[in-house]
């Protein structure tokens, strides 16, 4: 780390930049590897930049500019808004050059409202979260409910393990609601629903926890101790599904954690606020501590995570007033000043976009972790020894090790197929990377193998897991529209690949999405594996299909065989290879494989090429950026929709007319179309 910071210092001196001059407006925190920690208004995870007013007077940002190179080929102009002292502004470095404006925020439900609540003696009916549920027999009380904590306005009996609460409110016009945020303080766990659709939860794993289900861990309420509320941004698709014109209901259930008897306190205090796009008011003013931005800003450039990305901040006179060399960062880490506005920079494993920075680490730990045996296939249990000069934290459930993960102190017994992840830490340094190895114990497999590892919540959390029904599903009718697996969510994963001879051919960090159409409803789902710069692996360099001269893939699909899922898993690939492969048609590469997720056998998934612009380039040589692609419903996927206009012309012209026929034939490969329709 000393070498790194010395180089940064020399770069700054060579540029002649004012390293020791402290301007009023500063680059305060940056994340150049945002995988899943701060969504924008569309719930996309763009990299971001936080600016901070470190002075004692407000600043109008008009005329200030920011750029990622010097001399700046293209500045991005900061918006014409005033930033108060000690205030932050968040910029998404998406390259989209746009802003989304909320006129003002209002709070529809507060902790000081009168709520209906109950500490039940038996489980509640499933519809207790619905608008029309009859809660006339419930108690009424002000919303800071619980026992044993300070600041309570409504007391429930000591030793209560859970209580349930409802608050109705009215929405005159849902079309003016752009965003929704739940702020909440609680002890120990909670689940919140809006009109029966889940919008937030913490410390509760069960999908529909009953009255006796306890919180997973202890969590102390913070507000009465000078802390702040936790914030949960309601996903836009969930908000659109849940909110209705007229009467709505917010429901919250709060649960205690028990260890050797009940804890001595239980609390919840919620606020539900809406971002409104017009001047009209529907609800109450926000609390004094509420500080959400009115606009989401997107710069005209993106950030690189190559370790040498530079940012420059210019005043209205085009003078560089601040600059930052962004080190290469582990996913979801940020880099910035601590305390805010000062000259000292830290790595933050818990970023705080738009809020005051908390203590971080001085840098990354460069210690190398050694494993006494390589990942792979073993016929009997093994003992694994980890080595390194720093403390080693490890996990066995697929999640990345944190400072709070188990500390390695003795050899690990590996007696079943297990993913071992390890990372080094010290008092002042955090882990720059995670070392991952999968050990397959007594697995008799004759196919290539994928080991996919990820935080279990990414796939299996009831609210956010891409494999789950989730809060918005039509759970009674297949294919369960509204389920999590119908949304285009991407989760970070680590992928190891072993060939048929059990040689490890590569390992990469990537993104995973649920793939397919109605086959998403199957118990085993297709996965699209996406390679991106933000995962530091823009492509897989491997020849999956020997009969195709393609060695690089930006994405692949691990397919559950679609409509062939419940039969033999062979039909789809067989038809492609033995029938269509004999024609002049393009075919997707096919190869069967076995998938493990977090060390668990997950069945046969067929390796397939993903049909997109990269497929066209790899298979035909046509440059990907020039490809127009429509789906089966003529929806534009890539490029423009000129192809649809051409199809419409062909379908609505008299093909007996030679000139009409020639106009269409000149733009279609008719021989290829004949092959397609014949097969």
Task: Name a few traits of the molecule.
single chain, 679 residues, mainly beta, seven-stranded mixed β-sheet, seven-stranded mixed β-barrel, 46 strands, globular, disordered N terminus
Walkthrough of the structure:
The chain has 679 residues and is mainly beta. 10% of the residues lie in helices and 34% in strands. It is built from eight helices and 46 strands. The strands form twelve sheets. It has a seven-stranded mixed β-sheet with strand order 8-21-7-2-1-24-25, with no helix packed on it. Strands 36-37-38-39-42-44-43 form a seven-stranded mixed beta barrel. Strands 9, 12, 13, 15, 18 and 20 form a six-stranded mixed β-sheet that branches. The protein is globular and about 75 Å long. The model is unreliable at 1-21 (pLDDT under 50).
Task: Please render the helix and strand layout as text.
Blueprint: H1 2-15, E1 25-31, E2 48-53, E3 59-60, E4 65-67, E5 76-77, E6 82-83, E7 88-92, E8 98-101, E9 104-109, E10 114-118, E11 139-142, E12 145-147, E13 154-155, E14 162-171, E15 177-187, E16 189-194, E17 197-202, E18 230-233, H2 236-242, E19 246-255, E20 266-276, E21 295-298, E22 309-314, E23 320-326, E24 334-337, E25 345-348, E26 363-364, E27 370-371, E28 376-378, E29 382-384, E30 386-387, E31 391-395, E32 412-414, E33 418-425, E34 429-430, E35 435-441, E36 449-453, H3 456-460, E37 491-498, E38 504-515, E39 526-530, E40 540-541, E41 552-553, E42 555-559, H4 571-579, E43 590-597, E44 600-609, H5 613-620, E45 629-630, E46 636-638, H6 642-651, H7 658-665, H8 670-678
Parallel strand pairs: 7-21, 12-13, 26-34, 28-35, 36-43
Antiparallel strand pairs: 1-2, 1-24, 2-7, 3-6, 4-5, 4-22, 8-21, 9-20, 10-11, 10-14, 12-20, 14-19, 15-18, 15-20, 16-17, 16-19, 22-23, 24-25, 27-30, 29-32, 31-33, 33-35, 36-37, 37-38, 38-39, 39-42, 40-41, 42-44, 43-44, 45-46
């Amino acid at each position: 780390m000393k070498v790194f910071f010395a180089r940064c210092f020399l770069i700054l001196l060579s540029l002649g930049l004012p390293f020791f001059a402290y301007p009023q407006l500063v680059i305060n925190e940056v994340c150049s590897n945002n995988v899943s920690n701060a969504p924008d208004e569309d719930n996309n995870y763009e990299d971001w930049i936080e600016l901070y007013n470190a002075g004692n007077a407000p600043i109008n940002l008009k005329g200030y500019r920011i750029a990622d190179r010097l001399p700046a080929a293209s500045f991005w102009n900061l918006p014409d808004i005033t930033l108060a002292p000690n205030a932050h502004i968040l910029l998404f470095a998406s390259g989209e050059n746009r802003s989304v404006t909320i006129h003002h925020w209002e709070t529809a439900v507060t902790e000081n409202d009168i709520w209906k609540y109950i500490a039940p003696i038996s489980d509640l009916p499933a519809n207790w979260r619905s608008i029309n549920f009859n809660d006339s027999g419930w108690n009424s009380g002000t919303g800071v409910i619980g026992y044993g904590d300070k600041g309570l306005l409504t007391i429930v009996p000591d030793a209560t393990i859970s209580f349930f609460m409802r608050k109705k409110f009215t929405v005159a016009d849902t079309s003016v609601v752009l965003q929704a945020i739940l702020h909440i303080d609680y002890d120990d766990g909670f689940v919140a629903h809006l009109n029966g659709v889940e919008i937030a939860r913490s410390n509760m794993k069960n999908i529909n926890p009953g009255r006796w289900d306890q919180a997973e861990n202890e969590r102390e309420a913070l507000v009465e101790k000078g802390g702040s509320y936790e914030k949960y941004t309601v996903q836009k698709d969930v908000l659109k599904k849940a909110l209705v014109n007229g009467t709505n209901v917010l429901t919250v259930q709060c649960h205690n954690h028990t260890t050797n008897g009940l804890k001595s306190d239980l609390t919840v205090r919620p606020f539900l606020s809406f971002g409104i796009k017009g001047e009209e008011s529907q609800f109450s003013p926000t609390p004094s501590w509420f500080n959400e931005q009115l606009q989401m800003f997107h710069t005209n450039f993106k950030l690189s995570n190559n370790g040498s990305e530079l940012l420059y901040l210019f005043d209205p006179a085009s003078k560089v007033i601040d600059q930052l060399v962004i080190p290469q960062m582990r996913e979801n880490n940020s880099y910035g000043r601590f305390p805010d506005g000062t000259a000292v920079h830290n790595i933050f494993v818990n970023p705080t976009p738009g809020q005051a920075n908390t203590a971080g680490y001085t840098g990354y730990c460069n210690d190398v972790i050694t494993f006494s045996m390589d990942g792979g296939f073993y016929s009997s249990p093994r003992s694994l020894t980890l080595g390194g000069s720093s403390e080693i934290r490890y996990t066995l459930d697929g999640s990345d090790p944190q400072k709070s993960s188990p500390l390695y102190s003795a050899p690990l017994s590996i007696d079943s197929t297990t993913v071992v992840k390890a990372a080094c830490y010290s008092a002042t340094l955090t882990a720059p990377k995670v070392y991952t190895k999968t050990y397959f114990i007594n697995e008799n497999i004759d196919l290539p193998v994928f080991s996919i590892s990820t935080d279990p919540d990414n796939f299996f959390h009831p609210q956010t897991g891409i494999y789950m029904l989730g809060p918005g599903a039509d759970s009674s009718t297949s294919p369960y529209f509204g389920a999590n697996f119908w949304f285009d969510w991407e989760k970070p994963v680590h992928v190891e690949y072993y060939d048929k001879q059990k040689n490890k051919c590569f390992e990469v960090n990537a993104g995973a999405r649920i793939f397919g159409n109605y086959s998403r409803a199957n118990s085993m789902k297709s996965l699209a594996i996406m390679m991106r710069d933000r995962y530091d692996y823009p492509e897989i360099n491997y020849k999956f299909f020997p009969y195709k001269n393609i060695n690089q893939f930006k994405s692949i699909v691990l397919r559950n065989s679609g409509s062939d899922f419940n039969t033999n898993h062979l039909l789809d690939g067989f038809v492609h290879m033995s029938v269509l492969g004999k024609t002049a048609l393009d075919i997707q590469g096919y190869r069967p494989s076995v998938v493990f997720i977090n060390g668990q056998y997950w069945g046969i998934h067929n390796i397939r090429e993903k049909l997109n612009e990269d497929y066209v380039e790899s298979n035909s040589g046509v440059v990907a950026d020039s490809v127009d692609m429509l789906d089966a419903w003529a929806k534009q996927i890539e490029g423009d929709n000129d192809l649809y206009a051409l199809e419409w012309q062909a379908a609505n012209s008299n093909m007996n007319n030679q000139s009409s026929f020639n106009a269409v034939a000149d733009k279609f490969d008719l021989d290829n179309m004949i092959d397609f329709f014949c097969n």
